[in-house]
Design a protein that fits this description.
By secondary structure, the chain is of the alpha+beta class. Helix content is 45%, strand content 15%. α1 packs antiparallel against α14 (292-307), α8 (121-132) runs parallel beside α9 (147-156) and α17 (380-391) crosses α18 (412-428). The radius of gyration is 23 Å and the shape is globular. 45% of the residues are buried.
Length: 429
């Protein structure tokens, strides 16, 4: 039986693209009028004493051990040991939204949600799957792709995982993306596709022309009367190394594309701001014609997914990210690190452009942290193991035919020797 609070949210969303795409779990989710909600009321009006939240407080301030404080001297207890709000630090959420608008000028004038803070981008993807993916609502992704997509889809949600062939003849495979999206639309009445750019494992981002074609594919399916969820996994956003790459997130173009399109952006400082262990990510969503009430209702659905799993995200991470984003030196420091990655990319590009292999074929790459090889003969796992055992070099086997190399973690002066070893081992197999 569905809780009355869930029914109220479902009624608000009734008939919208979010309603028509929603999973059974999504329909059941609601934010309880319990400890968090009542604690929020008390925070405003409990002037004498607030006995709602399970924290130890003295003189109105959370108690903090000196063993914590000495390692975070510039943060106060509310920025370190206090519980965070379910949807995250409101100031940080507002800052991140401002940054989204700066980085994606096509969003200007479009209605998007206030980003919801979650414990990392994996959590963002998992919560989207909770609400929109189930046994008869499959997820479509590229082949090859990050293995966590399949784990979340199949193991957690019990859903089918579909894939389109990412590349054909050295180019992004627009034709197969369109074919697989149309196939899902016809069979299931709706489509859920995750587009990850820069892509993991290939390190590819679409050109400006390819981005326009992707948007056109989505719009055509929406105009045919089918609902489309486009989840932009922008973990490596902005790490572009070639001039013809589309600089904005596809989310910027999907946000008000059509009433049948629900656009969701998953991003955060994890990769693009070099803060991997902070586990701080964001979910932002938009759809043409969404009312303020519908935006709020879907936000509450996400909050209920957070509340029923991790309750809230880490407070110190949020505090540190907020302060960093407000630091005048932040962007300049990022630019220096991106220059370093650009140099590593250039070194890899030079090597694969001047060396040929009968076994390894580089997949298209132009951005992000990675590049990958298609293993034309033999088995990728055999090459990986031999490379590790004989050369002391670690790379990743994505599947039987794909090897991924994170050049982001290889010093530039080692790149030529590392790639020489990769080619030599592959040729010797």
């Amino acid at each position: 039986m569905i809780n009355p609070l869930a029914q109220e949210l479902n009624e608000t969303l009734k008939g919208s693209v979010a309603d028509l795409l929603m999973s059974d779990l999504g329909k059941r989710l609601y934010f309880p009028n319990g400890i968090i909600a009542q604690g929020g009321e008390a925070a405003k009006d409990a002037k004498v004493a607030n006995g709602t939240i399970g924290m130890a407080v003295a003189n109105g301030t959370p108690i903090e051990l000196d063993s914590y404080k000495k390692n975070m001297p510039e943060l106060n207890p509310r920025e370190t040991v206090a519980y965070a709000k379910t949807a995250g630090n409101p100031d940080l959420r507002a800052i991140w939204k401002d940054k989204l608008l700066e980085k994606n000028p096509s969003l200007k004038g479009k209605k998007i949600s206030l980003p919801i803070l979650v414990p990392g981008l994996t959590a963002a993807l998992s919560y989207v799957a909770d609400i929109f993916v189930d046994e008869d609502k499959p997820l479509l992704a590229a082949d090859p792709c990050w293995d966590n997509y399949e784990l979340i889809t199949c193991a957690r949600r019990g859903a089918e995982f579909h894939q389109f062939k990412c590349f054909e003849n050295g180019k992004f495979n627009l034709a197969d993306l369109e074919a697989k999206m149309k196939a899902d639309a016809e069979k299931y009445g709706s489509v859920r596709v995750i587009l990850n750019f820069p892509q993991n494992p290939s390190g590819y981002s679409p050109t400006k022309d390819e981005a326009k074609e992707i948007v056109k594919i989505v719009k055509n399916i929406a105009e045919s009367g089918k609902q489309v969820l486009v989840l932009s996994d922008d973990a490596y956003f902005g790490l572009n190394y070639e001039d013809d790459i589309e600089p904005q997130s596809l989310f910027a173009y999907m946000a008000d594309l059509h009433e049948n399109v629900l656009a969701i952006k998953a991003d955060g400082p994890t990769k693009e701001d070099f803060a991997w262990g902070f586990r701080t990510g964001f979910i932002t969503f938009a759809s043409k014609g969404f009312s303020d009430e519908q935006v709020n209702a879907l936000q509450v659905k996400f909050m209920s997914a957070i509340r029923s799993s991790v309750s809230c995200s880490s407070t110190p991470s949020q505090s540190l990210v907020a302060k960093a984003l407000n630091d005048p030196a932040h962007e300049a420091q990022k630019k220096e690190l991106r220059k370093m990655l650009q140099s590593r990319y250039d070194a890899v590009r030079k090597f694969v452009s001047t060396h040929k292999s009968s076994v390894l074929e580089p997949l298209p790459f132009n951005s992000g942290y990675f590049m990958s090889f298609n293993v034309k003969t033999g088995n990728a796992e055999d090459i990986r193991k031999k490379l590790l055992a004989e050369k002391g070099i670690g790379i990743i086997q994505i599947d039987a035919n794909t090897l991924r190399v994170a050049f982001s973690s290889i010093d530039e002066d080692k790149i030529e020797a590392v790639y020489e070893s990769i080619y030599n081992v592959a040729e010797a197999m």
